[in-house]
Amino acid sequence: MSSVSTDIPIHADGETVFPETVWEEEVAFIDRIPRPIAMIGILVVFIAVWQGLTSFGIVSRIILPTPWETAKDIVFVGKNLASGGYMLQAFWMTTKAVLMGFVYALIFGFSLGILVGETSFGERAVLPYLVAIDTMPKVAFAPLFLAWLGFGIASKVALAAFIATFPIVVAVAAGLHAADDNARMLFRTMGATRWQTLFKMKLPTGLPHIFTGLKIAAVGVMAGAITAEFLGGGNGFGELIRVAASQLNTPRVFSLILYLSLLGFTLFWSVVWLERRLVFWHSSTVSGINK
């Protein structure tokens, strides 16, 4: 919403002088609420609705525990993690699968992204296959990875990397095309080699695109690792969630998901932190979109 503020025209020496038109941006009330207060308010409303659903019997407490029951289980899981119990070992197994999957996704994603973005062969021959695979439901590949790699951590890492690779491929390929024609012509005029052009012009220019893909991959790699653990068993948090769900221990399911979200949150914001230091010059960072 915006409004126009104008004053009455001034008559001076027989001439009419119109003042400058001033555009005043009207900020809605909801946008003036400080961020911490807004976030706390949303959380309070969410918990109140949750409590209401269980207190009035709208949803059975067998499938939806009360906030208090969930809070008690969150404390229990936290104590087990802090004391080095079996949950800490499970959390470490999931963390290893997530981190290794992300590293492999970076390696394959950057390699394929450069192949697609830098060569006509990659764009014409490889990209159609990548697009075809990307359109498939990648979670459905979980049984195949389990059959090929067994029920150990290798199948979890493979599915996590498989899901996280494609956003990186697309982001790297798009980033390599982000440089404008003037910059390309300048490097050609200076006699830069193909590798110099790639590492000194195309990759730095494409960093905003690349980090967008990395943030999507950071979220996807969690889904891949947990899905593989959920279907293939093992010793990770996904297996603990499956066991708790089979016992209708819904407070435990909620608390395990909460701690898993902390892992995903940490990975995501690690990427954002790195982006702010390397791409500080870009508008999305300067304007605070990622803040």
Automatic annotation (TrEMBL):
**Protein name (database record):** ABC transporter permease
Compartments (UniProt record)? Cell membrane
Concerning its family, UniProt says:
Belongs to the binding-protein-dependent transport system permease family.
| Coiled coil regions, renumbered to chain | none
Q: Where are the transmembrane segments?
A: 37-59, 97-117, 129-151, 157-179, 210-233, 253-274
Which UniProt keywords are present, listed alphabetically?
Answer: Cell membrane, Membrane, Transmembrane, Transmembrane helix, Transport
Q: Domain ABC transmembrane type-1 spans what residues?
A: 91-269
For biological process, the GO terms are: transmembrane transport
Q: How does it sit in the membrane?
A: Multi-pass membrane protein
- What domain of life does the UniProt record list for this protein's source? Bacteria
Q: Which Pfam families match?
A: BPD_transp_1
Q: Can you supply one Gene Ontology CC term for this chain's record?
A: plasma membrane
